[in-house]
Amino acid sequence: MYIMSMLRFICQRNIHQVRHFHKCIIQQTEAVAAMNTSLLESVATQKELPVNSKIEQIANQIISLNLIEVAQLSELLKKKLNLPDAMPMNSFVAGPVKEEEVEEAAVVQTSFTVKLKSFDEKQKIALIKEVKNILPNCNLVQAKKFVENTPSIIKSDLSKQDADQLADVITKVGGIVEIV
């Protein structure tokens, strides 16, 4: 099928145009191949530049420093070169962690689960009807079993606002809920 479409294209066009197009494509392909070859050769022939022995000696001394000495060196260089503090260096030195810092670093909960813990027996029917409306593909029999088998999770992976709204709706019809 591809060959047929190419033959149809060639027959519809002037043969000289097709030959010229073909020659251009071959020339471009050869030029790209030559560039790639020259780049590979230049990278292969390129050698490492010689390093000054003084700089190599300094690098070896820095490598042999421990963490505290690196922090001190960094502070000294900042003072001598008048560099601003981009990152506080005292974070490198291990020290006691305050409880306030741990609380600030605590993960913020973004996903909440609404759990039905218990319900008021007098409003059981209203709660069953509400559960039927809340849960997708749930009939009255399933909703009744769901309510009677408390504690059970009504919905999970909700935002804080959605979880609060759902808890309010369940509480109004006699359910006791917990947002986890």
Structure description:
This protein is mainly alpha-helical and 180 residues long. The protein has a domain of 68 residues: Ribosomal protein L7/L12, C-terminal domain/Adaptor protein ClpS (Ribosomal Protein L30, Chain: A, 2-Layer Sandwich), CATH 3.30.1390.10. The chain is 59% helix and 11% strand. Strands 2-1-3 form a three-stranded antiparallel sheet, covered by helices on one side. Helix 6 packs across helix 7. The model has no long low-confidence stretch (mean pLDDT 76).
> Beta-strand percentage?
5-15%
The end-to-end distance, rounded to whole angstroms, is 62 Å
Radius of gyration: 37 Å
Total number of beta strands:
3
- Low-pLDDT parts are none
* CATH fold annotation of the domain at 112-179: Ribosomal Protein L30, Chain: A
CATH superfamily of the domain at 112-179: Ribosomal protein L7/L12, C-terminal domain/Adaptor protein ClpS
Mean residue pLDDT: 76
Q: Just give the CATH class of the domain at 112-179.
A: Alpha Beta
Question: How are the strands of the biggest sheet laid out side by side?
Answer: 2-1-3
CATH architecture of the domain at 112-179: 2-Layer Sandwich
Task: Give the number of helices.
Answer: 8
The helix/strand class is mainly alpha
The helix content, as a percent range, equals: 55-70%
Q: Largest sheet at a glance?
A: 3 strands, antiparallel
**Morphology call:** flat
Order of helices and strands: HHHHHEHHEHE
